[in-house]
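Hi, here's the filled form for the chain we discussed.

Project: internal
Contact: R.S.
Residues: 784
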Amino acid sequence: MSTVLWESSQRIARRVWKPLAVKLVLTATLLFLMLDLLFPVKTAVSYSTLITARDGTILHAFLSRDDKWRMYAELPEITPTLRDAILFKEDKYFRYHIGFNPVAMVRAAGRNLLSGRRTSGASTITMQTVRLLHPRQRTYGSKLIELFQAIQLELHYSKDEILQLYLNLVPYGSNIEGLKSASLLYFGKPPKLLSLAELTTLTIIPNRPSSLRLEVNNALIIEERNRWLARFRASKLFDETAIADALDEPLTAYRRAAPQLAPHLSGRLRSENPSVPIIQASISPAMQATTEQLVRNYVNRTRAYNIHNAAVLIVDNRTQEVVAYVGSSDFGNAFDGGQVDGVRAVRSPGSALKPLLYGLAFDAGLTTPKTKLNDVPTNFGGYEPDNYDRKFNGPVTAEFALANSLNIPAVALLNELGTPTLVSSLRKAGFTTIRKQAKDLGLSTILGGCGVTLEEMTRLYAGFANGGVMGELRFTGNDSPTRRNTKLLSQEASYLITNTLTQITRPDLPNNFDNSYHLPRIAWKTGTSYGRRDAWSIGYNQRYTIGVWVGNFSGVGAAELSGANTATPLLFQLFNTLDYNSPKGWFSKPGNSLSTRLICPETGDVPGEFCTSHVTDYFIMGVSRYRRCQHQKAVFTNAAGTLSYCAHCKPDSGAIRRSYPNLSPDVIAFYQSKHIPFEKVPPHNPNCERVFGSTALKSAGPQIISLNDGSEYFINPKQPADLELSCQAPNDVQTVFWYLNDKLYRKSSPTEAVFFRPRPGSLKISCADDKGRYSDLRVIIRNE
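And the returned structure, exactly as it came back:
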């Protein structure tokens, strides 16, 4: 009977308790999930920002926002040896529990109750991670919260992620947290390169960070390390040979400075990616270190000339990756503005924009390399540019003008092309300051009258190296290689620019370069801004484009500062050191659109009637203009060659057809001012009524180039100054007549400068030549 009753009671108990147990489990689960939803565990951590090179080498490390060295270790950096050592020491059953170890907790509670004090703990790695994330006072209530949050971590993260978080937070004394921070700052290497002895050392310190202080208590640390290595040996955790080597290994740990390479780029990337713990830059660590050293050494020499800084940017032309970025010669030099980023500082480009202008002119069909441009004094509506050496060369080829950086041909070419075309191309190329200045830019833009950065200029020249296509520079390894490209020039125009900038018979070579420098095979262009404040030299070959700026961030000029003698030597050093005898070959002529043709060397145009010699020149098929040479013109004269005839006064017999130079008035004026002989057209037949009759009025009259029509001129009545009158006239003009308010003022030769003392009021100025042709203008004179 008793047996039956017992079995019956058991069945009743199972019916009652089984549903109750299920309900309790379900209720506890729902409660946990609700609390988990209401109070999620927060794992956001403020990490130190690490800037790494393309090969993973750490270039620069920054403190976290709370001033800690807390570096983020990625999962691949947690090697099996590190994982086994830390789990053996801290939590052998880490892979099996759900955040807490009940057996260890019961054992620890028993020991603590028997001893009356806390003799051992039962914290798992998960619970320790919670404590590191959210430090609390050591109470039973805190323990319960840690237990709950440990289960939360196990619910939301994998075991490897929890271990990674733990290793990123463990303390090592002072402001160093995380195994990776300790590895780099004390051993100078990443965790994956640590030896077993070094790993064991970093494993034992977090439990006693105040007493086991690296560099301070190394002897005590070795003793504790060897004790744990003996435990590893006893448990056969690692190979006997590895243990023996680890026991014999000395401890040479000491506090090292954090890596500080590429400080300007690193600061830039950190500000652009504030929440990313590891940013992979495109920098090549070897090239960066070499470039920094070359810049530092070079500026140390130029300081004797009051030149205190330099910046360099190096771009890989194939990928558009920035492989070296030096913003200043010494980041730590506050006196000379070392923390200013010269790569992004807005400066005047001097003549460094001229290659783009010539490329645009090639593509517009305005010129070819051997087209003649006039390098003579010229007035462009009141703007009178001068050359850097204050000399003039007369008619020169376009390639000569570009290679020698002549100012007047460049301004004349821009005047023909149109300033809006150049500005539009610069805006298209991403020149941000020019975008802001666009409405105020004029002809002086091509001589440096605008603001650019070294980054923009280097990117522009990298576009020349890539056939006129500009790509977005890539500063990090995460930047997409297929970003938006901008076609600025044709391949043909880019090749013509490169061909011209490769010439070495030019004035912007460094002084005595052949004695001090080995000239690399590059295409390059220099620039010197007004007041000698900025020196530029930017060069490229097939592999790299290197931009160099030298000057003072304060804006103070220096007498010795120039693109040729200050920036170019550093450019040559960089190419010779980083890419000596580049194996990539040289640029080849593109396609069939770029061809050659015979031209007259006098003008660069297709040979005409009077062209006796021919040379070869490049031209872009279907683009370059086809114009017959007219450097000579046919003129009928008398037999003695003392009079010339036009078609209306040519006699029926006795006239002889001769050829004379067909020079423009500005070239004639230049030749006359420099006493350069040239063959002049004889004076016109004085009996010609067509030329000297009443109908010969303003047509083809002398051009007044000073003063400027419609302008206002202010004079000081107490110290009056003379104003200059000058004109340009055809080469058959011998005499001009100046009139002020229709009254004859002076007679002079066409090239002679005439001065007068102005008076307040409206003034009409007229200039007539000895053929009766004239021109006039009006100005207003005011007192200051």
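Let me know if anything looks off before we file it.
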